Amino acid sequence: MTIRVQNERFDPWQELAAYQETHAVDWGGRYGATAVFVGSLRDFNQGQAVTGMALEHYPGMTEGYLEKISTEARARWELLDTLVIHRYGPLSLGDPIVLAAVWSAHRDAAFAACRYLIDELKTRAPFWKQETTPGGLRWVEEESREP
Amino acid sequence: MSRKNIIIVRYFASLRERMGRNEDQLEVAGLSCVADVWSRVSNEAFPVNTLVAINQEYATPRSPVQAGDEVAFFPPVTGG
Fold first, then answer.
1. What is the CATH number of the domain that holds B28?
2. Would you say the C-alpha torsion A36, A39, A42, A44 has a positive or negative sign?
3. Interface probe with A: pick from B8, B10, B74, B78, most Cβ of A within 10 Å
4. 3 state SS of A121
5. Are residues B74 and A58, on separate chains, in Cβ contact within 8 Å?
6. Is position B64 within any domain?
7. Domain count within chain A
8. Which domain range does residue B35 map to?
């Protein structure tokens, strides 16, 4: 189980290949299913053009909740491993923002746990998006379920 | 002021901008719950849709606070 919160740009596909390369030996021959979600910065939101973004977060609490959510997923489904990487700081269009990956023996657990990781991250991990638009900077204010 | 007698209050994102500062340090005397902390730092009513954490765990306006706690106020989260 690995979580990383970082300022640096990352390539999710290289991260996945490297992670699997390093950890496959721990999983034995049992990793029959890998489910992956990658979220990237798109060029529109709520009807407005977006040209860039800055992500603020709460250092410490962010890592704590990503670990908590990963641990919950591992308690709910039979998983071999999970990997979550999330950016903060300034981002460019097309940049990957988040990677959530799950390895398990079977696809049902992999799909469900991957969905859980990203859904829970979106409602509980303390990140805030500030978009750059032609009209200036704008905090994204989505509805958030009470944790 | 000794750290053990204070509560650190932190603000994030749009709420940090609205408050005009990153944090406050409050004498704990007279503060028993999160709502008390908010009343000490702002003249406004507790803003709707604002989340609160104590020592980096989600809490509510009624949650008790004590000396040494770190209390944070912030808008709904928008990561992922």
1. 3.10.20.30
2. positive
3. B78
4. helix
5. yes
6. yes
7. 1
8. 3-74
Of A145, A71, A74, residue with least CA distance to A112: A74
Which among B14, B49, B74 has the least Cβ separation from residue A126?
B74
H-type alpha helices, chain A = 12-23, 61-76, 107-124
Residue with tokens 């269009």, as numbered in its chain:
A93
Q: With contacts defined as CB-CB under 8 Å, which chain A residues touch B51? A: 144, 146-147
pLDDT band at A144 (very low <50, low <70, confident <90, very high): very low
Nearest CA to A108 out of A144, A71, A78 is that of: A78
Between CA B41 and CA A7 the distance in angstroms is: 31
ipTM summary value: 0.94
- For residue A101, the tally of other CB atoms under 10 A from its CB is 24
Q: Do A56 and B12 touch (CB under 8 A)?
A: yes
Query: Quick check: A128 and B57 CB within 8 A?
Result: no
- A83 lies in some domain: yes
- Tell me the pLDDT tens digit for each residue of A29-81: 899 999 999 999 999 888 889 999 999 999 999 999 999 999 999 999 999 99
How far is B10 from B38, CA to CA, in rounded Å? 11
